[in-house]
What we know:
Blueprint: H1 7-30, H2 35-50, H3 56-69, H4 78-86, H5 90-112, H6 117-126, H7 128-131, H8 136-150, H9 158-171, H10 178-191, H11 196-213, H12 219-225, H13 227-243, H14 249-275, H15 284-300, H16 312-319, H17 323-336, H18 340-367
Helix pairs in contact: 1-2, 1-6, 1-18, 2-5, 2-6, 3-4, 5-8, 6-17, 8-9, 8-10, 10-15, 12-13, 14-15, 14-17, 14-18, 15-17, 17-18
Amino acid sequence: MESGQTPLYVFSNVILYLFMLVLAYKGVKSRDGDKFRYMLSVFLMFLFCEYAFWGGDYYHYIDEFKEARLGARVNLEPFYYWVAQTFESYDEIRLVIWGGGLILLLLLFRIIDKKPENYVYTYISTYFIWFTYARASLAMCVILLGLVLIAHENKKMLFLQIAGIALLIASLSLHKSATYGVAMAAMAFVTYRFGKWVYLLLIMGMVAVLYLYGDSVDIASIAQEHEERMQSTVSVARMYLEEEERFLGMGELVEKVLFHLSIYMVAILYIMSVFENKAKTFSKYTRIFGCYAFWTALTSSVFLLDFDYNTLEMYERFSMYALIPASSFLSKIYESGYKRRFTTTTIIVAVLCSLYTLIYVYYCTLVK
């Protein structure tokens, strides 16, 4: 395989995504529970995870795992060193990490709904391509599975809660940014039951703290407390952004606007449901996922304020933690019919973002 992106490789991802999008659209519209369509969609998800040529990280990890196999010091957690030294083929490595994460995600969907097809179809349409991008996807799936087990309806099954807590702890060893994901899981689990006045107080309190003490917040000093983890996360995220040379000028701006706009629209949709007392009618998992996406969108945006420290990379990375919960929330909200026009528009924005990103990457491989 060539060491860099080629038009043919990236075009194969574009075609694959379009085919998956058609399957997902038919699945959501027909609601016929077609098992063949569902199994084909899942197979194509695994295939996309295995050969995600569109992302620069796909090629970056080839070198990273090769060096890790030789014992070199690279920016990988111990688990990934073990994977690199256990499996020689890069295809096998991707199957273990991204394929394993996808299995956990499908298990998560199966736990919260005996008919998980719509969860899968909505995720394919909206944010799935980002799942195939970085190894943090595995940590995200472990965190969300842990959260779902902790919040499981059967409170008599104590071992589920214990297993959920164990998964949250284990996720911390899978990616340096997982601490943030676990914090958002805790926030979602605590606040999803709250009513509109509590949310209003929390939001106002957050704004007040930032207004009064924002100038005195020293992100650098916070980073020093967790120097190795935080500084490494920032520096590596910056390196990834610098390597993504295909995203230039207006092309990058369009992609980022669509990406973050869809996340903020999900956050707005959730908070509207809270203030209109509609959220109480949603299932527990729907509320938790909506709450998770809301707090992730809100807290990650704090890093846009910079505070004399280059935290834009952290904003981009932390925003990724909203994607799976946002997709899951959209799936059930669309089914419920609540704010149907706004929900549909949000899904369309997310789909356009994924499609635009893939096509733009393909275009850049043609002109570079």
